[in-house]
Model the fold of this input.
Amino acid sequence: MTHMELDLRERRAIEDMLNAKMPVAKIAIEIGRHRSTVYREIKRNSFTDEELPYLNGYYGVTAQKSASDRRARRRKLIRPDGLREAVIDRLKEGWSPEQIAGRLGFEGHAIRVSHETIYAHVYSREGQSEALARYLPSRRKKRKPRYARRSRGLVFPPDRSIHERPEHVKTRETFGDWEGDLMIFERAQGNANVASLVERKTRFAVLFRNNDRSTTHLMNRLMDVMVPLPLPARRSITFDRGIEFRNWRKLKPGIGTEAWFCDPQAPWQKGSVENLNKRARRYLPRNTQLATLSNRYIKAICERLNGTPRKCLGWRTPTEAFTEEMIKLR
Done:
């Protein structure tokens, strides 16, 4: 659903219901909004006056004017062409909004803008029509809400750290412990990518294509790939802390598989899958047009990788080692 700001009618309704001592949660239900929207509206647009505190409160008309003034400030870069052009030119040169705003102040421009104003313009309708987001350091097409960003520590809690992983996983003593990663391709290929999995004991590799980088899509595809294996053959998977793995909690109830995570910026801790990715890049370089590849082609790559003798397996192939372990489970 398209985001719509509160209008004057809704703000007057909020004022009336607040005067009637109605709880905010009930007000939200009455006007068909989320309660956090109403809480935020009251906090941002309430009237305050230190000299006349008895007048403090929420007034619908005053709130509407405050919101309108705020929108006008966000549109500061729409009006003065010279300022807008200077900002856009520097964005194209690779400057961040913070650098641009700071430099404008340093140069003593008559009209100054904050970095938040620049971000607001980049993600506005006008900025999106010019595709300005591609010049930001993050190149993110949509901005995440400032107060909705979750700490990586909450997404990947300490008890899921690789340092809490059982010792038998580290030593490769048991069968069924995997490492997982995502192979990313050139931006021209869109969101398409290839997920890579490798079983730590046998070095058996699995590659499968995704047409979407969303964590929901990736985890659903991963479970579809893993579920045909017996439970002892899919005990755990170790990932890095890429945000595409943030739905890892689906694995345990979905297919009975534990998830472990490397330290931040430590991909070498899952060296088996990193090694697999290097081998797979011979056949899937970054400029590969994934849309033209068939599943049969990707399966053929897996068969070639798994059919190559490995010194660490006593010159057996990963397919032979994996098959031996699967026979033991029967």
The radius of gyration is 27 Å. Residues 146-152 have pLDDT under 50 and may be disordered.
